[in-house]
Amino acid sequence: MMENRTFLKCYASSMLCAAAATLGAGFIAWWRGRRVDTAPAPTPQEPAARESRPVENAQGETDATRHVARRVIQYFVIPIWLVSGLTDWWCHRRTDIEHTTGLKESGLHLLMLGEAAFPVLAGLFMEIDVPVLSFMIASFFVHEATAMWDVSYAVTRREVQPVEQHVHSFLEMVPLMAVSLIAVLHWPQVQALLGRRVIRSTPPRLKREPLGLPYALGALGMMAVFEVLPYCEEALRDWKANPGRLTPPAGQPA
């Protein structure tokens, strides 16, 4: 048991360190891009051609690639995430979460939902620049650490059945799939995070090619129905079963 706890702590710590490193890389890339705008023009004795690393504006992939990748995210990745989240809620309900792990686990579920909120909203509405991409990647790492915390607590007080374990694999890999596709679409920003390019920093802005109001409203509505409302209901049910307690009393009947 101690070895398992040590592994869990090391895994969670490594995810948090990766998140911090990603945010740090994003800040450095943003700062380098910001300095480009304020750098003095090169003198005749110091021509711009001497730049060892090119400074350029972010460019996307081809229109066809962008179109296909967007459709995969919109109509494949996000629906899988929504269905997986609702199925996970159903698994919690079947194992009587309000009398086993209680509000503490529900709070972790809401925390993970919040960690996923920024990448989803950014992907729907924001132009993906270097800071936004770094926050999206960091959110994935933090979500992984929280997921490990969640499961390591849940298995001590209730049965995590095979179906739920399988659902968890989707809930962990779907965000990675989404971030990977977004990274492919915005490869210059990834290179900037790695220090291979310098991209001029710009203020946060909405997408130049919006997804469309009907899709955005539909996606937000489905997220509310499939994710937000079920997990809020779960937390409320846990609170009613054990008012004022994060965890149910030991030995409480199901």
TrEMBL record:
Residues 39-62 are annotated as: Disordered. Keywords: Membrane, Transmembrane, Transmembrane helix. The chain crosses the membrane at residues 12-31. This is Diguanylate cyclase. It comes from Komagataeibacter xylinus NBRC 13693.
